[in-house]
Amino acid sequence: MLMKCLPAAILITGLLYIFFIPEEPLIIKIMFKVIPMLLILLYACTNVGRRIVTNP
User: Fold this and answer.
1) Torsion on CA atoms 25, 28, 29, 34, rounded to nearest 10
2) Closest CA to 37 of 4, 13, 20
3) Contact yes or no for 41/10 (Cβ under 8 A)
4) Alpha-carbon distance values, 32 to 18, 24, 54 (Å)
5) Span 27-52, pLDDT tens digits
6) Could you tell me if 17 and 34 are in contact, meaning their C-beta atoms sit under 8 angstroms apart?
7) Average pLDDT of the chain?
8) Are 6 and 36 in contact (CB under 8 A)?
9) pTM as predicted
10) Are 17 and 32 in contact (CB under 8 A)?
């Protein structure tokens, strides 16, 4: 269940960082920059063994 929601969480946190996080409180800006990066790494680590097989 969590793995199905992970791409949506990456998209939402990335959009929040780009459009809604203010410049001034630097710690909040850094936190919202790190969260999407950690989610992307988690998604990549969970999908290491999966391969898409196409028919030639």
Assistant:
1) 160
2) 13
3) no
4) 9, 13, 37
5) 888 888 899 899 999 988 887 776 66
6) no
7) 84
8) no
9) 0.71
10) yes
